[in-house]
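Continuing the batch. This is chain 6 of the set; chains 1 through 5 are on the previous pages. Same settings as before, nothing changed between runs. Recording input and output for traceability.
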Amino acid sequence: MAKKNVVSTVPIEEKLLNLFELQSIDSQIDNIERLKGELPMEVRELEDEIVGLDTRITKLQAEQKDMEVKLAKHNAAIHEAESLIEKYEKQQANVKNNREFDALIREIELQRLDIQLANKRIREGRVNLTNKEATLEAALKKKEAKGKELERKEEELKKIIAKTEKDEKNLQKKMEKSRKKTEDRLLKAYDRIRDAYKNRLAVVTVERDSCGGCYNYIPPQIQLELAQRKRIVSCEHCGRILVDRELAGFDSESDLEKEVSEFGEPEEFL
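Output for chain 6:
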C-alpha cells in the first residue's frame, strides 16, 4: 500500500521536531556504523581476495599437474628411444649390405637426437615446475595468512554486532516510524542533504550565532525566524535545515557538548 502523505495542516514546529528527531536517530545509527569502522568492507575484500587466491591456486595446481605429465612423457620417450637404439645396434650385426647398415646408423642418430631434445625439454620443464611449485607455495601461504586475518576481523565484527545489534534494531524501528511521520517532500530534501555531507548532518541547531553544520554566521533576522517557527529555514551557506536550540531541547553548554559528541564535527561536501 502506498504511503499516505502527512497533511499540510501539520504545524511547522511539529515538522521541525519530526526532522530533528529523525536526524537524532540517524546520527545514532551512524555512530554505530562508525564503531564498526571499515571492518565490513575489509571482511568483504578479504573474502573476495581469498576467492581469487582459490582460483589462482586451482589454476597453478592444474598447470603443475600438466607439467608433471609432460615430464613423464619426455622420460617415456627417452626410454623408448634407448630401446630402439639397442634394437638397431643389435640389427647392425646381421645386415647384408652397406645400405641397410647406413639406414640403421641414421635411425640410431635420429633416436639420439630425440633423446637430446627430450632431455632439453626435461631440463626446461623441471625449471618451470620448480618455479610453479614456488609460486603455488607462496599462494597457499598467502591464502592461509589471509584466512587467519579474515577470521580475526570476522570475530572482531561479530563482537561489535553482538554489542550493538539490539540498539541498532530498536533505532531502525524508531527511524522507520519517524520517517512515516515526515512529509515526502521533506524526506527527499533531508535525504539529499544527508547524502551531500560526510558527517551525514541534514538538520542542525544554531550554536553561538553559527550554523551547527558549517559554522558559518547566521544573521539575527534568520535566528528570529527560527524562534518563530513559521517556516522551515535552511542555512544559506550549506543548505542544512536549521532548528532553534529551544525546540531541539538544548538549554545548556553540557547539552551542546552532548550534541557535538552525538552528531560529530561539521565536515565539507563529499
